[in-house]
C-alpha cells in the first residue's frame, strides 16, 4: 500500500509564495510522473502541472511562469513552488502520482494525495 502526505498549504497574502510537498511512502519502485491539480470552491478539479521523474514539466497557462514543479526521486517526493500568488489561486491542491510501479508487482498504479488548502487573501 502507498500513502501520500501533502504539506505546505495555508494562508498567504497576494504576491506571496508557498511551497507544497507530497511525500509518497510504501513499497514503491518508481514514480514515473507526478501531476498537480487544484479545485477551487464550486469548480471542477483542474490540472495545473505535470512533472516526470526526469524533471520535464509542463504547466497550465494560469500558473505558467509563477509555479515550478520539481521531484526528488530518491525520496519519492514532489514539490510545487508557488510564487506571486493571486486570490484566484485559492483552492485545494492535490498531487497525483501516476504511474507508479511497486516492488514485486508488474502492474502500474496511481495514488492521490488527500488535498491541501491554499488561501490567498489580504
Assembly category: single chain
Radius of gyration: 14 Å
- Extract low-pLDDT stretches: none
Care to count the β-strands?
12
What is the averaged pLDDT score? 96
The succession of helices and strands, N to C, reads EEEEEEEEEEEE
Number of helices: 0
Net shape = elongated
What structural class is derived from the secondary structure elements? mainly beta
Relative strand content = over 45%
Describe the overall structure.
With 122 residues, the chain is mostly beta strands. The strands form 2 sheets. Strands 2, 4, 5, 6, 7, 10, 11 and 12 form an 8-stranded mixed beta sheet that branches. A 4-stranded antiparallel beta sheet has the order 1-3-9-8, with no helix packed on it. The relative contact order is 0.32. The chain has strands at 2-7, 10-12, 18-26, 28-31, 33-39, 45-52, 57-59, 67-72, 77-82, 91-102, 108-112, 116-120. The chain is elongated. The termini are far apart. Helices cover 0% and strands 61% of the residues.
What does the secondary structure layout of this molecule look like, with pairings?
Blueprint: E1 2-7, E2 10-12, E3 18-26, E4 28-31, E5 33-39, E6 45-52, E7 57-59, E8 67-72, E9 77-82, E10 91-102, E11 108-112, E12 116-120
Parallel strand pairs: 2-12
Antiparallel strand pairs: 1-3, 3-9, 4-10, 5-6, 5-10, 6-7, 8-9, 10-11, 10-12
